Amino acid sequence: xxxxxxxxxxxxxxxxxxxxxxxxxxxxxxxxxxxxxxxxxxxxxxxxxxxxxxxxxxxxxxxxxxxxxxxxxxxxxxxxxxxxxxxxxx
Length: 90
Description:
alpha+beta
């Protein structure tokens, strides 16, 4: 199971319990592709984070479903990071 120590650039929050990360992109097209990939991830996992975005930035906020962050939240964060890893490797 992934945990916050293995996730880069994620900030944790106590009230409400959750975590967030801001992603920056070089163009609107890259931002849209990330959002499309994130939507596919949400559909596949059934987890829907809170999103704020503009032309070249996306902030993903994952809120705990219980009193603490668990496997679902850490797993979704890790898979969100993996979206970018796959783009770099491609």
